[in-house]
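Task card 7
Instruction: Convert sequence to structure tokens.
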Amino acid sequence: MDKLKFHIGIFLIVLTCSCEIDLSGDHPCQGNGEVQFINRSTTGKTYEVIWDNIRMATLSPGSESETFTVTAGQHTMRWIVSNSNTNACAQANVSIPECIKETFFCSN
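Output:
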């Protein structure tokens, strides 16, 4: 009788678990990561974020960008003072991990 109760208990646990397992290996973030940028300017200047030579965002002091999906791996990031070619922060080579969100800021 005790053995029967044990089997019925296991059966009920299996019935109530409606887990979905994706075995395909395809995930929305596969091969990608996310980045976001924040202007923490102490000089009150607007910055532009240049990502792999493409202007990604223009940020007024204290503001933050939307979240961007980017390819995981190595990238070049540059912060410049808006409407100029003057670096606000040093150029950086960054590595974006797959399926992770990274937040970057410049505070000059």
